[in-house]
Amino acid sequence: MQNILVCYKWILNEQEIKIDPNTLSLDTSRAKKRISEYDKNAIELAAQIVEAQGGSSIAISYGGADVKQSLKDALARGPERAIWVNDPNSDKADAYVTANALAAAVRQAGDYSMILCADTSADASNQQVPLRLAVLLGIPAITCVIKLDVEGEKVIATRRVGDTTEKISVEGPAVFTVLPEIAQPRFPTVKQVLAAGRKPQLELKVDDLGLESEKLTPKRTLREIKGYTMSRKNIVYKEGTPAEIAAQLVNNLIKEGVI
Amino acid sequence: MAGIWIYSEDIILAKELVTPAKELAKQAGQKVGAIALDAEGAKELAALGVTKVIVLQSSSSWVEAYEQVVADVLQEEGADIVLIGGTIRGKYTAAKAAARLDAGLLTDAVKVMLENNKLIAERFVYGGLAVTTEELSFPAFVTIPPRSYEIMTAESEQGEVIVKEVTAEPGITVVDVIKTQQQGVDISKADRVIGIGRGVEKLEDLTMIQALADAAGAEVGCTRPICEELKWMPIDRYIGISGQVIKGSLYIAVGTSGQIQHVAGIRDSKVIVAINTNEKEPIFTASDYGIVGDYADIVPALTEALQNAKA
Ligand SMILES: Cc1cc2nc3c(=O)[nH]c(=O)nc-3n(C[C@H](O)[C@H](O)[C@H](O)COP(=O)(O)OP(=O)(O)OC[C@H]3O[C@@H](n4cnc5c(N)ncnc54)[C@H](O)[C@@H]3O)c2cc1C
Ligand SMILES: Nc1ncnc2c1ncn2[C@@H]1O[C@H](COP(=O)(O)O)[C@@H](O)[C@H]1O
User: Fold this and answer.
1) pLDDT in tens, A52-98
2) Spatial separation of the C-alpha atoms in residues B23 and B117, rounded to whole Å
3) Tell me, which fold does domain B4-165 have in CATH?
């Protein structure tokens, strides 16, 4: 039986962020938050393991007040419980602070047999929270997992590292970060959404975790954020037969000197 | 030895890192040190003017297992700035070593600078939508992607090489390692690329795409889901923020929506063409020429037009 902790981050949907072409500033006013893309795959994997082997999974997220809104969505995807680590200063947090807060929350969550994360968050792309978490908890970490086989006490993780596939065997609790192909996230059904509303949610205030203020002080400071823009010709062909359009395009490509 | 330290399990990447490390060292009036995993590579680093190269030797073949020893050496040496090669294994080592030293780490920096005893780096966030400037106080860790810097020519002054026998205990067992056959083409170097996305409905249509590539003198690349979900192409063919970055003269996107994570890998191309049925997709904003239509009609027509143009 597996007791799985699965970590997800509640982030802005980057597709809804607009860039001001003059100032290059980011307009996030119309961007909604969502579960970081690949964390959904990790949550799905947790659900599949529990469905196949029994046990339970707990979803954990560290963030600000708005993380509360995410709990139902996370729970509809399978976990039995959700823990929300609430930090009013989370907007300044870096991977160091995030991992310290998550590690403290994990210690309070009780026994666990594995911790699942995605390989990268879709906003910050730190690729470090799960590894830092493993160091803080004193357990191994296996990244880039594309297959996870639970065989009793032993877990066999298949990793993809560039052009190499590695099989790793681990005994005892470990952190695994997954690549998206490991499991396709479900679209929660109405029934699952309704059931999610009745599942337990636990809020942990970061100040109650017993962390020294040093551990909640980011190492990283953000100086500036600027949108990346490019100007393209944006010529669009809609009218005409495919042959006519193709001929026009090829003419232009010849003029551009790229053919 | 305080100063700027570099580490990569990949010796070519380690040599690339010497370039920015020396730049930073010059500014800081400090020296460059390196940690290497083999004695031959260490000599090459010393020849590039790295003052002190420490070779870690152990029986472990799982490179990730060295993270603890790497952290120990960096701590003993009192490293201020640590540049680590941004491979998957390098990022693993970087994150764990930084955690052990309670240090900050900036992943995948595209630019590194020094200012008032702080490390400043630029990096992409939101899948390439924005660039941030971030700062860290010392000790500061940063990972740098492969091929970001040219390797310098060897210096007359050689550094010293110190070999250390260490134990690297991974706490896991490597059961099996399979190296997949490299498919030959490196699309990051191709001048023209056709990139297919999930809009391409069936595997058989790759024949049609290949015909277009032949007519255009192009290689075929793709979006991430084509490799990971559909497994139609080898993993080194996908383009984007987490895959290959192409910088050639022509990119033709066939049935790709143009999400930022993909566009981040194509936006240095000179000319971008899109073929997509849905005019509202972001790929049209990212393109010079967009064709609203079904690839099944457009691709053969374009192939023919290219063949005619050459004839
Ligand atoms: C952290 C992170 C990192 C990522 N890194 C990358 C990366 O490096 N590279 C990458 O590619 N993706 C990456 N992604 C995924 C990315 O966000 C998109 O999901 C992906 O690029 C979409 O692939 P696609 O365009 O093939 O598929 P879709 O988005 O499904 O688009 C298919 C397109 O085909 C069009 N279409 C359908 N039928 C036809 C037809 N008959 N003719 C013409 N057009 C048709 C549709 O209109 C649609 O626009 C990443 C995501 C995250 C969260
Ligand atoms: N604030 C957070 N709360 C919970 N999990 C997180 C948080 N930030 C990162 N993670 C986990 O760590 C993974 C990698 O994040 P990152 O290190 O930011 O790339 C994410 O996919 C999550 O699984």
Assistant:
1) 999 999 999 999 999 999 999 999 999 999 999 999 999 999 999 99
2) 15
3) Rossmann fold (3.40.50)
Q: Which of B63, B101, B105 to mutate to test the interface with A (most CBs of A within 10 A)?
A: B105
CATH topology match: B4-165 vs B187-310: yes
The answer to whether the beta carbons of residues B175 and A169 sit under 8 Å apart is yes
How far is the C-alpha of B259 from the C-alpha of B129, rounded, in Å? 10
What pLDDT shows up at residue B157? Answer: 87
Q: Is A31 on the interface with B (CB under 8 A)?
A: no
Closest C-alpha residue for ligand 2 atom 8: A9
Q: Residue B233 C-alpha to ligand 1 middle, in angstroms? A: 15
Residue with the two structure tokens 């029934």: A191
For A149, the enclosing helix (H) or strand (E) is strand A141-151
For residues A175-189, average pLDDT:
97
Ligand nearest, relative to CA of residue A15: 1
Which of A35, A44, A94, A98 to probe ligand 2 with, by most ligand atoms within 8 A of CB? Answer: A98
Name the residue among B146, B145, B258, B241 with its Cα closest to residue B195: B258
Yes or no: is domain B187-310 CATH 3.40.1190.20? no
Chain segment A107-120, per-residue pLDDT in tens: 998 899 999 999 99
Partner-chain contact A164 B179, CB within 8 Å: yes
* Residue B155 pLDDT level (bands cut at 50, 70, 90): confident
Residue ranges per domain, chain B? 4-165, 187-310
Closest CA to B234 of B167, B282, B186: B186
- DSSP H/E element including A179: none
Q: pLDDT (tens digit, 9 = 90+) per residue, A119-157?
A: 999 999 999 999 999 999 999 999 999 999 999 889 999
| Homologous superfamily assigned to A2-216 | HUPs (3.40.50.620)
Q: Is the CB of A120 under 6 A from ligand 2?
A: yes
Ligand 2 centroid distance, CA of B173 (Å): 26
Measured in Å, residue A181 CA sits from the centre of ligand 1 at: 14
Q: Is the CB of B243 under 6 A from ligand 1?
A: yes
Cβ(A258)–Cβ(B192) under 8 Å? yes
Nearest-CA distance A167 → chain B (Å): 5
Per-residue pLDDT tens digits for B15-59: 999 999 999 999 999 999 999 999 999 999 999 999 999 999 999
Q: Is the CB of A118 under 6 A from ligand 2?
A: yes
- Determine the Cα–Cα distance for residues B139 and B99; give it in Å rounded to an integer: 11
Over pLDDT 90: what percentage of chain B?
A: 93
Whether A149 has its CB under 8 Å from any CB of chain B: the answer is no
Question: B107-141, pLDDT tens digit by residue?
Answer: 999 999 999 999 999 999 999 999 999 999 999 99
Here the ipTM equals 0.97
Please give the Cα distance from A17 to A27 (Å, whole number): 6
- Which atom belonging to ligand 2 lies closest to the Cα atom of A117? 23
